Amino acid sequence: MRRTSVLLSATSAILALSTFNVASAQTISNAAQIKSGAYAVEPGHTQVGFSVLHFGFTNYFGAFSNASGTLAFNAQTPASSKLTVNIPVASVQTTSSQLTDELKGAQWFDATKFPVATFVSTSVKITDPNNATVQGNLTLHGVTKPETLQVHFVGAGVNPMDKKYTIGFDATGALKRSDFGIKTYVPYISDEVTLHIAGAFEKQD
């Protein structure tokens, strides 16, 4: 009896996975097929990662979560698309709880005084069908500076879990933290910060 129950459970799991795979396969990888419209950041699957060279030994990684924001995407003229992303600074995480707490403090991000980092696009240049250079203004630690992101379209389609039309991008960039007044331990911990962003957006209309 127990063996039959286990087999039934396993069969149900396989069928569920098969259904999920069929649904998740209905995505497109050609940016020209993305639907125009208003999108909102899907925070559960949007990650803002960063890394710094730590005393010349390792590239140390951290991340922010719970981002919010909007994307106005125009399929006919993608270069006219507009992006705004807000990142709660206190969401910063590393593999060290002590370092995570320090990064929120006044020596580093000072999350109490400067609770949100914001990127607002100023131009979008399409470099090939699935890639673009996005320039914009980044406000961090009370300072606003122009920054550039290299953006790659990953895929679009109906999310099989929540049935919402979703588009996803990867973006990379780099900045100097001293430009934003975050100078603690420079140059022992590198001034240059590498960014890697996984962005998911859900259609709103």
From TrEMBL:
Describe the location of the Lipid/polyisoprenoid-binding YceI-like domain by residue ranges.
38-202
Q: Which residues form the signal peptide?
A: 1-25
For this UniProt record, give its keywords in alphabetical order, as a comma-separated list. Answer: Signal
SMART domains per the UniProt record, alphabetical: YceI
SUPFAM superfamilies this protein is in?
Answer: YceI-like
Family matches, as InterPro entries: Lipid/polyisoprenoid-bd_YceI (IPR007372), TTHA0802/YceI-like_sf (IPR036761)
Any Pfam family hit: YceI
Protein's recorded name? Polyisoprenoid-binding protein
What species was this sequence derived from? Acetobacter syzygii
